[in-house]
Specification:
Strands 5-4-3-2-1-9-8-7-6 form a nine-stranded parallel β-sheet. The chain is globular, with a radius of gyration of 17 Å. Helix 2 links the parallel strand 1 and strand 2. The protein has a single domain, classed as Aldolase class I (TIM Barrel), CATH 3.20.20. It starts with a helix and ends with a helix. The longest helix is centred in the last third of the chain and has 20 residues. It is built from twelve helices and nine strands. The chain is of the alpha/beta class and 267 residues long.
Length: 267
């Protein structure tokens, strides 16, 4: 059983929902990223999505785009992101880490070379935003052979056939994009989310994590009542961007936000 499967099974036994924060690796520097990963775990994170900076992040809103730019200014690359995971693993062997990014850096490295490197770094899952599930057979097989979960997106306009196909290739969990648009945009309509999650559940037994609209403890609580996991990214990265001159304050504000979300979800 993968680390992700174990985590969701553990949460299910206790009736809890997963809190899944996202930050961009290397924003604003690599040392801050590693420190922030540990701080988020202490604040109540169950799983962490670690963004792989890319120059053309088509699914990301302006907050995460700027985070990618800051990380790329630090010469962050896919290989260096994996090195950060290795550093994190020296102190934490329990928290699942999911890489979230785009296909181009993986193709540049080569599917098999990437899968081997991710396995060595003890990555638990990979969410490749622009990997079509219909073309992912080789990629998925390489990841699964190394006990790495390939995670795919579903959206409000995903049709039955796409949902069924994604379920055949995905593992770990499915990531439901709660709004039509980029990260950090739009208003979250939980009634529409609940209806779509019911449809998706008729095709899969995988946990469903919801993101792209979670901004505060109130929305985190609302999503936790209908989904299996709550993903929050832009709201956290906004705290980094607002405090680039005082990264300790940035960390403290992110920790406080996650603690509020953890309390709201659990209560």
């Amino acid at each position: 059983m993968s680390r992700l499967a174990e985590k969701f099974a553990e949460l299910s036994k206790t009736g809890r929902k997963a809190l899944i924060p996202f930050i961009s690796a290397g924003d604003p520097n690599p040392d801050f990223t590693v420190s922030m990963l540990h701080a988020m775990v202490r604040a109540g994170a169950d799983i962490i999505e670690l963004g792989v900076p890319f120059s053309d992040p088509m699914a990301d809103g302006p907050v995460i785009q700027r985070a990618s730019e800051r990380a790329l200014d630090q010469h962050m690359s896919l290989r260096k992101v994996l090195q950060l995971v290795i550093r994190f693993r020296t102190q934490d062997q329990d928290t699942p880490i999911v890489l979230m990014g785009y296909l181009n850096p993986i193709e540049a490295m080569g599917y098999e070379a990437f899968a081997n490197a991710a396995q060595r770094a003890e990555v638990d899952g990979v969410l490749t935003v622009d990997m079509p599930p219909e073309e992912a057979a080789e990629y998925v097989a390489l990841l699964k052979a190394r006990s790495i979960d390939p995670i795919f997106l579903l959206a409000p306009n995903s049709e039955e056939q796409r949902i069924e196909h994604v379920n055949t290739v995905a593992s770990g969990y499915l990531y439901y994009v709660s709004i039509k648009g980029v990260t950090g945009a739009g208003h979250l309509d939980t009634s529409n989310v609940e209806s779509k999650l019911q449809q998706i559940r008729s095709h899969t037994g995988l946990p469903l994590a919801v993101g792209f609209g979670v901004k505060d403890a109130e929305t985190a609580k609302a999503i936790s009542q209908i989904g299996d996991g709550v993903v929050v990214g832009s709201a956290l990265i906004d705290r980094i961007e607002a405090n680039l001159d005082d990264l300790d304050r940035a960390k403290n504000e992110i920790v406080a936000m996650l603690q509020d979300m953890r309390s709201a979800i659990d209560n």
